[in-house]
Structure formats: structure tokens, C-alpha cells
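Appendix C reproduces, verbatim, an entry submitted by the partner laboratory led by Prof. M.T., so that reviewers can inspect both the input and the predicted structure.
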Amino acid sequence: MLKTALLFIVLIVVGIIDYRALADYNTSFVSACLILLFPLLLFSLVVSIIQLTRMVKKEALVNVQAVVTSVFIALIIFEGILRVSKTEATYREKIGESKYRSSYWHDKEDAFWHLYQPNDTLQNFRGDYTYRRITNSLGVSEREINLKDTTTKKILCLGDSFTEGLGTGEDSTWPRILEKAINLCTQDTYLVYNAGIAGCDPIYNYHLLHGKLWDIKWDEVIFCVNATDIPEVAIRGGMERFKANNTVSFTSPPVWEPLYASLHLVRFFMQDVLGYSGVLRSKSEDRKLNAEASLKIKNVLLNAHEELAKRGIKMMVVIHPMTYDIFRRGYGKEGTGGLIKEIATLKPLNLLPYFLDSVGLNKKNYSFYYWPNDGHFNTLGYNIMGHKIADELISRKDVVCQSKGSNY
């Protein structure tokens, strides 16, 4: 009787600890062990109650309990192996962050515009490098520039962390390389404004363009798109995400996400056994929602092109490869590849063939251009991207090159 009472008390205590751990998305190994301990304690309590009633022979219960305990120990060992090997680690965990961050979360205060705090210093370690930026009064990682100045031609660059330039210095981002390249070959003075924000997507880019950068007389607007944008839009939605009270509303995560965050065993089962994606959706759900997201991105880009054209502003869409695009030597048909076909009328600049030519037949050469763990371009990758975009602008006559002794 005393054993049963003690088991019940311990079960309640562990249950409370587990509830708080799951609510906080606690990812520690100790927390994982306690979560796995709960069903073992529950089973032990049931066994203890059955023993009191003497409905089953004690020897049989002991054997069953020994098996269950062995399974528990095996699961703990497997959990530890998965953690040490980082087999099921999320992207953020691979770059050094200790906390799980859900793709479905957003910060209530700044999610409406998805901007940094104005005039702030950003610095963090991302595993492969230390990232440092100073934001301007708008809240982007850019110099403080007088955008009302009419003496310079202006190019606006919109995109996510690859446009902001994570993985290189502020003076080596592709917008800065682009600015240097075109100013070497034209008599005009060009200013390239980097409005890229890590974690952004084309819907946010369009929202920022309309909401805070619309009154500027741009000569060109460049939307930079990659494979991460489609699943992000699938979670966040299109323009309907923006609410009248200056807030946003994303779709909700599955109810089992706290278990996924806390237990690498659950990650292994959901992804490697059941085939769920990194955003916790089945293959059929992924196909459906990603197709809808591609359509939303297409509509935003077409709308932006039409609206800018009415104001005499040119627009270009740039699509660049991720490391896995290089490794498989192509885009996914239901992802970036499908989006390229959807927006074919915009004549997007696809940088994948250009990078494949640089990589050659050895797929592992992608490491020349990307950070191995973080996955962003390094300085060489951004340099290639910036110069290729400059080449394209010149070939399209969006920038008229009058040689100053450059390669152009």
C-alpha cells in the first residue's frame, strides 16, 4: 500500500515537471529522460495496484515490468545516441542554439513588419562564424542613407538572410558587391539599398515595399527568392496574415510539437519513419500547402511587377540555390522548380546553373561557396551572386554600362 502511494506521488510530481518542460519546449536530455520516465512510472503504478488486488500472479507482473523497464532503458540510450550524433538536430541547433524554435512562432511586437529594432547592434555566434550588424533607423542592416536624394540611381534589394548577408561582412554582401560592380562600369552613380531581413519571405518583402519604401523613386527593385520561402509562406500565409490591428496570424503547429521539440526519439519517428517534413507535416499536406504557397508568392510577385511598371520602375526576381539544390543538381519540382515555371513571364534570374558550373562535377565543391553547418553563402558565394546579378542587369539594359576600364 505504501509503495503504491509513493508511486502515485512520484508520478504526480514527474507529471507536473513534464508538463512544464513541454510547455516551455525544454530540449535538455534530463527533461527528455523525465518525459520518458512518466509512462514507466504510470505502468509501475498500474502494476502495483494489480498486485494489491491479487488478480494476476506476482511472477508474471515482475516479468512484464522487467521488459518494460528494459524498453525504457533502451529508449534512453537511443535518445542519447540521437543527441550526440545530432541526427535529428534542427537547423538552429546545428548552428549552436540550445533552444528549440518553432517555425510557427512569431514575436508579437515586431512580426507585423518583420524588421529589427532601429539603430541597434546585432551580434551572435552561428556555429561557423560570428554575425555582427548595425541596423539603421528603418530597422534593416544597412547604412543610414538619404533615400530622397535625386542625384543617384537607386536599386532596392528585398529578400531574407541571403540578401541581408549572413555569413559575410557588411561590405561583402551581394547587394554591396552589386553596387561596386555597376559603379565600376557606368558614368551614373548607383546606390544599392539592402533591405534583406533574416527569416523574411516574399510576402513580407512586398508588405515592406508597400508600407515603408513605396514613396522612394527606385530605378530597380530586386526580389531574391529561395527554397525556404515556400514552406515559410505555407505556415505564415499570404497577405491575409496581416491583421487590421497591426498584428499577424500564422497557422497553428500540430499539438504534438512540444514532444517533437523535447524528444529526439519523436523527431526520428515522425521524420525518418513516417516521412514528415521539417515543418511537421505529412507528405500529402506538404504538397498541398506548398502548392498554395507557391501560388501566393507568384501572385505577390506579379502584383509587384505590375504596380512598379506603372511607376516606371523595373523589377527583377533572382532565385538562388541552397546547398541541397547544389548537391542534387536541381530544384524540387514541387518547390522552387515549380515556382520558376509559375513566374516564367517575369524572366527570373536562376543562379543554379551558374553555381553548378562553378562547382563542376564534384558535388562536394559546394563547400567552396557555403558555410558547412550554417548553410549560408560565404564571402566567395556572395561575390559570385553579386557579380552575376550585375551581369544580368547590364545584359537586360536595366543598367547601361559605359566602360571605366572594368571587365564590363
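The longest strand covers residues 153-158. Additional entries are available on request from the coordinating office.
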